[in-house]
User: What shape does this take?
Amino acid sequence: MNQLPAPGLERLCLHTITTKPWKIEEAARNYSAAGVKGITVWRDTLEGRNISQTGEMLHQHGLEIVSLCRGGFFPSIDPEKRKAAIDENRRAIDEAFTLGTDKIVLVCGADPAQSLEDSRKQIHDGIAAIIPEAAAAGVRLAIEPLHPMFADTRSAINTLSQANDLAEMLNTPWVGVAVDVYHLWWDPELENEIRRCGRNNNLLAFHVCDWKSPTTDMLNDRGLMGEGCIPLKKIRSWVEEAGFKGFIEVEIFSNEYWKMDQSIFLERIVKAYKEFV
Ligand code: ZN
Assistant: This one.
């Protein structure tokens, strides 16, 4: 593990939400100047913009558009809402295609008014419904399991084992999984399950940050790599042994970091990436 070489800057991708105070144009300019090569675009940053021109702008800054965040939120006890969610996911696929990325991250959703089993069934059916559009657009759907503390409303898929089960059940090259260390670092089955999604060519994305101890806000207190208890190098070694060679995506939601000068934050991200990932 100590021999794991530091990852090169050519594999560094930032999620736009990590530097939320920046508009996408500012993010593109500053990421590019810092040597970042990839960007994962959150849909809110596209509001009011021409999506195709925005994609072009990102490419002109030398950024690869790694994925669009996010689709999902399929379950609801209300059938009309489930139908609306499927339509919304079809719009996300269109946006991804127009923007120029071949991947969408799925935060699958859950409805506390029904059982987790029912939510999981609706997630399966929702993803199955949009596979034809994903295939036509050449966009792969990455199921991201969320930490169980989000099982009430954000995702009924809480372990990589469940995400692998679902991807294998859907059994199409257009569906795989996203490994986010924040959600999965605690799981004793993580190494095996990373190996499993590697074997099935289902490992589509790798998200990093850190778990601060104590965590003061379960959504918006993610740590910078190296300031928490996640064994980042160990998990990266598993991901790479599973054959993953894609971007390493920094995804930090943090009320604290959003308050600071984002240029200084970006410098700290690049430094932490080289040192701790
Ligand atoms: Zn993530």
About this structure: The longest strand covers residues 64-72. Residues 26-276 form a domain with the TIM Barrel fold (CATH 3.20.20.150). DSSP finds ten helices and eight strands in the chain. The pocket of zinc ion is lined by residues 144, 180, 207, 251 (CB under 6 Å).
